[in-house]
Amino acid sequence: MTFEVANNYIFGFDGDHVWDWDGTSATKIVQVYQWGQWVRGFTIICSYRVKGYPNRVYWSNLGDPTTFNGANYVDINPGDGDKSISFGKIQDEMQILKRNTVWSITGFSGSSFSSTTIATQNTIIGS
After folding, report:
1. Which of 53, 106, 105 is nearest to 83 (CA)?
2. Rg (CA), the chain
3. N or C terminus of the chain with fewer C-beta within 10 Å?
4. Helix-strand-coil percent breakdown of the chain, rounded to 5?
5. Nearest CA to 60 among 39, 77, 80, 76?
6. pTM to 2 decimals?
7. pLDDT tens string 6-33
8. CA atoms within a 13 Å half-sphere pointing along the CA-CB vector of 17
9. How far apart are CA 83 and CA 29, in angstroms?
10. Residue 118 in 3-state DSSP?
11. Domains in the chain, start-ordered, CATH in brackets?
C-alpha cells in the first residue's frame, strides 16, 4: 500500500481501491486505482487496470481531494498499445511512465490539463 497526504486527509492506495483517512475513519472513495499524488491542489490518480481505460488519469476538484467529477480526466496517448505503469511528481509536474514512453501532464487549471511527451517527442525507454 502506498500513501499520499492531501489537505487534511491521508490517502491509501492498495492496488485495488483508494481509501481516505480523515483522522477518525477510513472510507473507500474510488475503486481500481493504484497510484495517487497531490499536486497543486488536485489529487491525481491512475491505474492501468481500469477496464477499457488503461491510460486514463483522473484528478479531483481543485482543493477538494475527495471529490472527483467524471469529466476530470486526460487520456495519455490512448490506442498506442502501451499502458501507464507508474507516475510521479517532478517540480509540480506529473510524469507518467508507460512501458515504452514517458509523458508529462501540464496545465494545472482543471479544464486545461493536457499530456505531452517529454521534450515534445516520443521518448522511448530501452530498446
Report:
1. 53
2. 14
3. C
4. 0, 50, 45
5. 39
6. 0.71
7. 888 888 887 777 888 888 888 887 666 6
8. 6
9. 24
10. helix
11. 2-120 (2.130.10.10)
